[in-house]
Write a structure and sequence with these properties.
Order of helices and strands: EEEHHEEEEEEEHEEHHEEEEEHEEH
Largest sheet: 11 strands, mixed
Number of strands: 19
CATH topology of the largest domain: Pseudouridine synthase
Number of helices: 7
Distance between the termini: 22 Å
Structural class: alpha+beta
Helix content: 10-25%
Shape: elongated
Strand content: 25-35%
Length: 305
């Protein structure tokens, strides 16, 4: 069976408001200041209190890690929870700045709403997350992962950044890799699949080896581990078309485990065997190279031991 949709658990905390006031004695940036002053608290913990709007500088809330501090200012940290904060289940925030949120999504969680499911989605949870700081904040879809695909993906915090990324996707994204657990032993240690994809009225993608008016799709793969029953592949996308990896693995003759739609007959791991391993891209506003990599799911690794 495929994973059931992820549920969110709401947790209320009735704590008295507590604040810490810190004086700025030299020019610096907020993150560096907090790391020095809050000894024992890790970078991720401090990022969390910033993202939740628990830090004020000179009386104004800020979520910016690089906010400049001037001598004589006061930094106030509120240790109370902001509202009835939802505990995110089904995703982990890997990075957040004023333009982007990068997450690691679990299998079973929708990227965006569907006709049947509106709220239990990564999009909905992240919208609530950014609105803890400002009720007017929003997020925007940059790209998607199928419900039963896990791994790294990103959302933007403005329409402008969304358009910048989508319009320059091929130039901005230097590397995008997946891990696929497929049925059978793949014989060639590595290879490239090129075909033209068309979509049927039932929303299923079909692959044709010659140009037929469809979208050209190119997928590179490398065998990492295998046994007589399963193979673990690293897959790199040269193009990013709908269901590209899934239909190309079927074309290869080795359907992704648990992917009944594209030929799989086995589901020993209780989910689809596809994971977005990493992404490397140019930040749309700062120009910095951003690189995020996740772990290969343990269930995948156990199948090829």
């Amino acid at each position: 069976m495929m994973n059931k949709p992820i549920n969110v658990k709401k947790q209320k905390r009735n704590e008295q408001a507590r604040e810490t006031t810190l004086a700025v004695t030299e020019k610096t940036e907020l993150m560096k200041f907090l790391l020095e002053k809050l000894a024992g608290k890790g970078r991720n913990h401090i990022k969390g209190i910033l993202a939740r709007g628990q830090v004020s500088v000179a009386g104004k809330k800020t979520t910016q890690y690089n906010h400049p501090l001037e001598v004589g200012q006061q930094v106030v940290i509120s240790w109370a929870q902001v509202g009835n904060e939802e505990k995110l289940v089904g995703l982990k925030i890997l990075h957040e700045d004023q333009d982007l949120i990068v997450i690691n999504k679990e299998a079973g969680l929708l990227s965006i709403a569907s006709e049947k499911e509106k709220k239990e989605t990564a999009y909905h949870f992240l919208m609530e997350h950014v609105r803890l700081v400002n009720p007017k904040n929003r997020i925007f879809v940059v790209h998607r992962l199928d419900r039963d695909t896990s791994g790294v993906m990103m959302y933007s915090k403005s329409k402008e950044v969304q358009q910048l990324l989508q319009n320059s996707w091929k130039e901005s994204v230097q590397d995008r890799r997946y891990i696929a657990l497929v049925e059978g032993a793949v014989q060639k240690p590595e290879g490239t699949i090129t075909s033209w994809l068309t979509e049927s009225k039932t929303l299923k993608m079909y692959s044709n080896p010659t140009p037929n008016g469809g979208q050209k799709a190119i997928t590179h793969y490398k065998v990492l581990e295998k046994n007589q029953n399963y193979s673990l592949l690293e897959v790199r996308l040269e193009t990013g078309k709908k269901n590209q990896i899934r239909v190309h693995m079927q074309t290869l003759g080795h359907s992704i485990v648990g992917d009944k739609k594209y030929g799989s007959t086995q589901n020993p791991i209780g989910r689809m065997g596809l994971h977005a391993l990493e992404i490397k891209f140019t930040h749309p506003t700062t120009g910095a190279i951003m690189h995020f990599k996740t772990d290969i799911p343990g269930k995948f690794l156990r199948m090829v031991k």
